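Minimal example, chain plus iron/sulfur cluster.
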Amino acid sequence: MKLSDKELETLRELPPKKLLEEVFGLFGERAAIGTSFQKTGTVIIDIASKVLDDFRVFFIDTLRHPDETYKFIKTVEEKYSIEVEKYRPDVEELTELLREQGRYGHLFSVDERKNCCQIRKINPARKMEANLEAAISGLRADQSGFRNKNLSKVYYKKRVGQQSLLKVNPLYDWTEADLDSYIEEHKLEIHPLYDYVSECGEKYRVIGCETCHVPVQADRPARAGKFPWETSEKECGLHYKDGGGI
Ligand code: SF4
């Protein structure tokens, strides 16, 4: 089912709870929430649980996440009685990647980092998304200039040989403060790494693969801790509209 421009406009006007209800109502099992279990994903799952009896959640397991993430997934699964679908890199592709650039090659050049994201993150995501008509994620406009300028709350992403994928970002216009107040009001347990404070006062504001995300000082930009050696838009390519890689 392909939605018209007018229908997309209508969806964009809906608050998160209503938007999730509508999207799951339209697409059922062909819709799913994709999350790396940062604050936004945790809040979306909580909102979905208030309006839906059953909904799909998936996680791209790059095999480089910190132990805290894997433990937190179990906590969320138990709390909401859901089973998170995990998608991992293809064994042959991963073997080839490790042979070519080693375990830490992604730290030495942007191209090698992109190769790693392609094999560990984007390819498994494409495999998961091939079963879907609508993918819901926690992307927010205030996370980066790129997201603000190029993406929106509801849009279609092109796919090769398949109908475009509807991308839905229920918290697109929320700020970090909005997230924190929802978390406080609903007494949500969040990823334990948000509580980590280094001896210099640095904290995590973006959580992902262990070697590519670090805690940062409060006055640095929100996404400074992701690929800290890069000055680019700091996107792994999962959300690009043209469906291309990175
Ligand atoms: Fe590889 Fe880092 Fe991308 Fe994770 S975030 S897939 S470790 S380059």
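Strands lie at 31-34, 57-60, 85-87, 134-136, 154-159, 162-168. The chain has one domain: 5-194.
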